[in-house]
Please model this.
Amino acid sequence: MDDLPVRDELRGQSPYGAPQLDVPVRLNTNENPYPLPEPLVERVAERVAEAARGLNRYPDRDAVELRTRLAEYLTRTGLPGDAAPLTAANVWAANGSNEVIQQLLQTFGGPGRTAIGFEPSYSMHGLIARGTGTGWLSGPRNDDFTIDVAAAREAIAEHRPDVVFITSPNNPTGTAVPADAVRALYEAAQAVRPTLVVVDEAYVEFSHRPSLLPLTEGRPLLVVSRTMSKAFGAAGLRLGYLAAHPAVVDAVQLVRLPYHLSAVTQATALAALEHTDTLLGYVENLKAERDRLVAELLALGYEVTASDANFVQFGRFPDTHAAWRRILDRGVLIRDNGVPGWLRVTAGTPSENDAFLDAVRDLKKEQSA
Ligand code: PMP
Model:
């Protein structure tokens, strides 16, 4: 690849590459361990069969029915009862929230512009920035992995980014961002010039805190991005979405490919949204398992970062990669996100989590032997 005339900013970069290994227990990509319930599988088949009858035609380019249902879901779960409901005009959907983020960067970033994230955070923000020709800036965090708001405000004032990413709960640390911090960073960004602030809430359904969605009211450049890959247990579906002021949704239309969301995707997502309550029931199990992982890891003497997500960051390891490998040798795949001293484990089913805990118990014994 080094010989190819690829764009300068892509030279020497590595692609996103969480290992997809065939091992008994896979707790490395923050997926939901529960397969879709059988009645939903049947509903997907029905909806897809219906869609198949019309596959000679392009799908609804504006995905209006899907956006309407997503707006209803967000209004019901993310806004206070007296708030004005969101409508399809506030919502946009794409193939995974990665594509939502790409469309936002194509629209509000791009050559000559920059985006900032507070790292360690979701590595794709920086990779998608590069892919869209947007400069990437890495902002600071505190030692406990919360955002250092004063330092973040300074970084925004100094570097004048065009797009600000705030991930809450954050991946890989699990830390949630308080509403006050988001308000402060939004203000700091607008003080420079009108600036898009993206709150990535991929994991919010697992949080102890309410969604930051109400902050979009009165903040026309605040975007909340979401996904059906985690709480909805539908990572294979590839459906992400955003909620924002209608003007932001209109702007994104300038870069979206025509008919980007297939009729099959739209039909499947609509079927899943009919079963929201069942799917969110699994979220409660996962939250309890997440809390059990935290408690047991602490009891084993590990350090644990406070988690509001369906995963837990724990440490510390003198040789992080060697520890990751030892756990893999016991048939449990977790994630080394490149944060020195720390590893991340996704909450799985109770028996998967037991297998993981057995593996780390052994590791602890080895290390203290
Ligand atoms: N945002 C965050 C913080 C994530 O961790 C992920 C997936 N790991 C995504 C966005 C992208 O998810 P998807 O494209 O599956 O919606």
Summary: The chain has two domains: 16-36+277-368, 51-274. Residues 30, 96-98, 122, 167, 171, 200, 202, 227, 229, 235, 240 surround 4'-deoxy-4'-aminopyridoxal-5'-phosphate (CB under 6 Å). The radius of gyration is 21 Å. The mean pLDDT is 96.
